[in-house]
Design a protein that fits this description.
The chain has 92 residues and is an alpha+beta fold. The chain has a single domain, classed as Alpha-Beta Plaits (2-Layer Sandwich), CATH 3.30.70.100. It is 25% helix and 42% strand. It contains two helices and five strands.
């Protein structure tokens, strides 16, 4: 069993109102990745993904382009310490 990692992604561009949060939830649940996703007041979408490295890497790549209607102009990725998260939440 591989060790879990965590990565935070802040995506900017046309990322709100395009089902980004729901898409992230579906992608994370399909891979068994824990974490959360939320819209930020500045128009960005922020997500924290925690799970096996390959699955988290897949989600980071997905968030860097987003769902079909999104136009991600920039995706800032930072490593985080895994916190033992379970489930995946869509926040405000």
């Amino acid at each position: 069993m591989s060790e879990n990692i965590a990565r935070r992604v802040v995506a900017r561009g046309r990322v709100q109102g395009v089902f980004f949060r729901d898409g992230a939830r579906r992608e994370a649940q399909a891979r068994g990745v824990a974490g959360w996703v939320q819209n930020n007041p500045d128009g960005s979408v922020e997500a924290l993904f925690e799970g096996p490295r390959s699955d988290v890497d897949d989600l980071v790549a997905w968030a860097s382009s987003g769902p079909g209607q999104a136009q991600v102009e920039d995706a800032q990725v930072t490593d985080e310490d895994p916190g033992g998260l379970t489930g995946f939440d869509v926040r405000g």
